């Protein structure tokens, strides 16, 4: 299925999803299937970002989630939590079987991630526009204490409609928080319609630059490109960094790609799940 | 009271490196001495209250104890979601110092007054809410805020308020403070209304030969239920008075407490009356005291209203 012609995006020579990217997506489907609901589109666009962060960038100890020297990673777009849960399960923060309990009454894995119950979740998010301020506070704390760990905040494109994000950006630049990196999952599709229709963000990189960030852009599904950028931090010494990752909502599931109907799904039917699994097996 | 409160933050921060001050865009000169002496613990971060709360949460998650200060209405209304989620859900030790709770900013109009801050903060799980009587009591309270569990809202009065607290009182954050003992009436109040409660008690004694206990309920949440019920038992009348709207403040909390205690049943049961501001934005401007009088919350008006009940 061709991508939505209404959505303008840069053209990348995106490599096909490899076995690891497909396997992580299957973990998302596992939770979605058992939970019967979730935000699949938002998780699929985020998958290579979390994969590269946890495979190649972040310092962490899965069995000691509060290890003081860990890099802090906040999923500010909390509705993308299925991607986070998939990578946390993959890394051993909790058994993959827990994905089956997604959204269930006794589960640690809610429809938005919670700090405390769920190991590896640095902050409870779900209401949008909170994560960058919290991350900036953490980054400032690290500077104050002379600690060398870093802070990463994953933002949604719709999320940055929130004014609080730009308050946080001003703050981070003022304090020269070059230990702070924002990553925008720029899939160009909000809940209702394309970002360009609901609230245009362009020129997005220029906005971040004007707010004092060192900005780069790349293909958010190209593992090598993400790795190259996220291992070159800070982009400029003395400035917070932002990586604008151009992604596709629902990436990897043709039926869901660029399709606002797959932003959130509940009462998923067996037939729908079969389509999802088949897309990843193919 | 405000000056004392902020000076106490400076003093406490000197002894405890976990303590940081986070202001928005406060008046020139605010805490200059702290900024000069402890620059690494002093932050003035602009008119961006949502961000201030989030940053304070991030600092607290890393072990700091931020004292966040701006005008009460901007601190409570503007960033309610950040307070609820970033602070209360995470149970973080952030202290919110709200300048001018109640009618302090009456001359500046309804954008700056807040007769709902106690309700907004009390509605949030894990949040503590307090409002002391005067600057001296503030001095006694502030050291106790450092190790308070979870977030805490500190409502400030105007400053220059008469000192009616006593250094002999055993002030304990979380415990209602008995200021006067009498057998007929129990009067509950917080903040600058404690002074008026003491005046009401005196007038009732002189004009009606009624003796009143006055409890300073400086900690509105968690409410010292045991003490209030203990003192209410056997009284003819229980009065709550507050510089706050009728919903969600001390009046509502005490009404719920009494109703659930079964104390209001039977012929010997005390009657309960709340004296709070009307459920309306203040009309006109004037001073805090003028507005308090217009809302019939001054000591004479309340005494008169009690007389009509007896």
From TrEMBL, chain A:
Superkingdom field: Bacteria
Organism from which the protein derives: Magnetofaba australis IT-1
One Pfam entry name: Transketolase_N
Coiled coil (UniProt feature): none
Alphabetical list of CDD domains matching this protein: TPP_TK (cd02012)
Entry protein name: Putative transketolase
All copies of domain Transketolase N-terminal, residue ranges: 22-276
UniProtKB/TrEMBL annotation, chain B:
CDD domains listed in its UniProt record: TPP_PYR_DXS_TK_like
Keyword Cell inner membrane: no
The Transketolase-like pyrimidine-binding domain, residue ranges: 1-163
Keywords: Thiamine pyrophosphate
SMART domains from the UniProt entry: Transket_pyr
UniProt cross-references to Pfam families, sorted A to Z: Transket_pyr, Transketolase_C
PANTHER family: HYPOTHETICAL TRANSKETOLASE FAMILY PROTEIN (PTHR43825:SF5), PYRUVATE DEHYDROGENASE E1 COMPONENT (PTHR43825)
Family indicated by similarity: Belongs to the transketolase family.
Spans traversing the lipid bilayer: none
Protein name: Putative transketolase subunit B
Keyword Amino-acid biosynthesis found: no
InterPro entries named among the record's database cross-references: PDH/Transketolase (IPR051157), THDP-binding (IPR029061), Transketo_C/PFOR_II (IPR009014), Transketolase-like_Pyr-bd (IPR005475), Transketolase_C (IPR033248)
Cofactor(s) named in the record: thiamine diphosphate
């Amino acid at each position: 299925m061709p991508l939505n012609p209404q959505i303008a995006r840069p053209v990348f020579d995106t490599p096909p999803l490899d076995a690891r990217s497909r396997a992580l997506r299957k973990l998302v489907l596992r939770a979605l299937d058992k939970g019967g609901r979730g935000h699949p589109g938002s998780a699929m666009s985020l998958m290579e970002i979390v994969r590269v962060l946890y495979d190649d960038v972040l310092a962490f100890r899965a069995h000691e989630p509060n290890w003081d020297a860990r890099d802090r990673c906040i999923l500010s777009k909390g509705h993308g939590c299925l991607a986070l849960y998939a990578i946390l399960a993959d890394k051993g923060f909790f058994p993959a079987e827990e994905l089956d309990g997604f959204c269930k009454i006794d589960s640690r894995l809610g429809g938005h991630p919670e700090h405390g119950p769920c190991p590896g979740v640095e902050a409870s998010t779900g209401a949008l526009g909170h994560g960058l301020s919290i991350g900036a506070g953490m980054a400032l704390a690290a500077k104050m204490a002379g600690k060398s760990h870093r802070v990463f905040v994953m933002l949604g494109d719709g999320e940055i409609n929130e004014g609080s994000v730009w308050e946080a950006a001003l703050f981070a630049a003022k304090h020269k928080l070059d230990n702070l990196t924002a990553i925008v999952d720029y899939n160009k599709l909000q809940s209702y319609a394309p970002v360009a229709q609901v609230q245009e963000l362009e020129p997005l990189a220029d906005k971040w630059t004007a707010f004092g960030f060192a900005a780069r852009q790349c293909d958010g599904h190209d593992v090598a490109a993400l790795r190259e950028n996220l291992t070159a931090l800070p982009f400029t010494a003395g400035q917070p960094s932002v990586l604008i990752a151009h992604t596709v909502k629902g990436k990897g599931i043709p039926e869901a790609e660029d399709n606002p109907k797959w932003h959130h799904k509940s009462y998923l039917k067996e037939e729908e799940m079969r389509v999802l699994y088949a897309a990843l097996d193919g | 009271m405000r000056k004392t409160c902020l000076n106490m933050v400076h003093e406490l921060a000197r002894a405890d490196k976990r303590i940081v001050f986070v202001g928005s865009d406060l008046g020139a000169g605010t805490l200059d001495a702290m900024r000069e002496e402890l620059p690494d613990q002093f932050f003035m971060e602009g008119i961006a209250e949502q961000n201030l709360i989030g940053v304070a949460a991030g600092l607290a998650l890393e072990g700091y104890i931020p004292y966040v200060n701006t005008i009460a209405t901007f601190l409570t209304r503007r960033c309610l979601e950040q307070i609820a989620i970033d602070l209360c859900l995470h149970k973080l030790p952030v202290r919110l110092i709200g300048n001018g709770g109640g009618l302090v900013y009456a001359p500046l109009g309804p954008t700056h007054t807040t007769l709902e801050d106690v309700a907004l903060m009390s509605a949030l799980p894990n949040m503590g809410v307090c409002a002391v009587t005067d600057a001296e009591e503030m001095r006694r309270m502030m050291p106790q805020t450092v190790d308070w569990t979870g977030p805490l809202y500190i409502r400030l009065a105007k400053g220059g308020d008469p000192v009616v607290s006593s250094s002999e009182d055993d002030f304990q954050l979380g415990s209602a403070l008995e200021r006067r003992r009498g057998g007929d009436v129990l009067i509950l109040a917080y903040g600058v209304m404690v002074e008026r409660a003491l005046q009401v008690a005196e007038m009732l004694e002189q004009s009606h030969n009624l003796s009143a206990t006055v409890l300073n309920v400086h900690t509105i949440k968690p409410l010292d239920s045991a003490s209030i019920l203990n003192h209410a038992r056997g009284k003819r009348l229980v009065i709550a008075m507050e510089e706050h709207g009728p919903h969600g403040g001390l009046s509502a909390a005490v009404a719920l407490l009494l109703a659930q205690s079964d104390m209001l049943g039977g012929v010997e049961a005390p009657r309960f009356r709340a004296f709070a501001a009307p459920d309306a934005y203040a009309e006109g401007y004037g001073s805090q005291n003028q507005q308090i009088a217009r809302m019939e919350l001054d000591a004479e008006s309340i005494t008169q209203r009690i007389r009509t009940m007896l």
